[in-house]
Amino acid sequence: MRQPWRVAVVGGGIAGLAAAVRLRDHAPAGTEITVYEQSGALGGKLRTGELAGQPVEFGAESFLMRDPTGAESAAVALIRRLGLADRIVHPTVGQAALVVDGGLRPIPGGTLVGVPGDLDRVTSVARPAADADLDDGRPLVGPDADVSVGALVRSRFGDEVVERLVDPMLGGVYAGRADDLSLVTTMPALARTARVEHTLVGAVRAAQAAAPRAPGAPVFGTLVGGLGTLVEAAVTASGATVRRDAAVRELTPTGTGWRLTVGPTRDAALVDVDAVVLAVPARPAARLLTGPAPGVAAGVGELDYASVALVTLAMPQPHLPELSGFLVPSTEGLLIKAATFFTTKWGHLRRPDGLALVRASVGRYGEEAHLQRPDADLATTVHRELSAVLGTPLPAPVDGHVQRWGGALPQYAPGHADRVAAARAALRAAHPTVVLAGAGYDGVGIPICVRSGETAADEIITALGGSAR
Fold this sequence. Notes:
By secondary structure, this protein is of the alpha+beta class.
């Protein structure tokens, strides 16, 4: 293998940047790392902007502090590696609500992404089906099976639990519907216990017991100054050459590595590298793999995505409840699917002048037509719906921002994990120096994307004959 190695990271989101940092830490000294980002901004869905004179997130807002085993999450480990641990802060208000029959009701405790482990605790928002969760002498899910979350929960707890609890919880994360989303990919801990337990209550309790949380330990964190500081620090630590506005249009095997065609057709650059981390969404990855690995491309390209818009309003001294925010079931008929009271939830964002920042998420899978409205129309509708839910007219905003994320959230249909595993196995066998990374394959959330990027970097190092540890 030629030294130094030359590795291309296609995609400058957090998965790609985590891969670049991992490569810098574990690849041989002198390895040339280049990050290609087709847009002008790094960080992907991590985007810190400014509104009413202070930093505010226009994308991802926070990260999980712990992984499913109870250990420190990959996001926290990366933040420590980058020297930003002293900037981690946690929500000062954790209680959120659901919109039920037009009003706010606290989200019940003791659920796993809305799936209850104690049916009596959710009766304030939903009526579980009576005596449907019976032990029929066999596990809920077969050893290799995957089902939609909605199908499983409806069969055991009835429609209201899905529509008023599970659907809005999953909708807040994926902008999708429980009836369409894979249990294995969106709720892996529950999928594991459902292969053993005979009742859904038992499976939820087993999943909760397998990932105990110390009382009072924070679940979420963010960074003072915004998550954009994580992006900047990762770029610096990686030592990578960063090419913005650089779309990789073609990937061609050369016998000793790969040739990237970068930039516009009339002025394309050809770049030879030894290995490639494809940290881009599924469809762009599929396009790049069509030539060298058409079977992999076909499997990867099946994944669909939802689009959303995030509408942030700055309002002078509104009367807001002491909540972190609320979720909205689709049955409520509102454009808003979730809202976050930033300056209530995060104590470090509170202002002495009482100006409040409220962000609403708009857009569900299959309802993209609503996002065709102009920014001003979306902001006006969000303001009106917030006032209606809170039961009081909110003051007129003094500032606002609409961030549109087209094709942002993967919609993991049942069987997604198997399809990705098959695609990766085929790619590893035919082209081990090209590796997939990111939310389109492994799941959403900053820790998952960081882990995905790091794992991809380790695979590249091993494929090139090095040691990832």
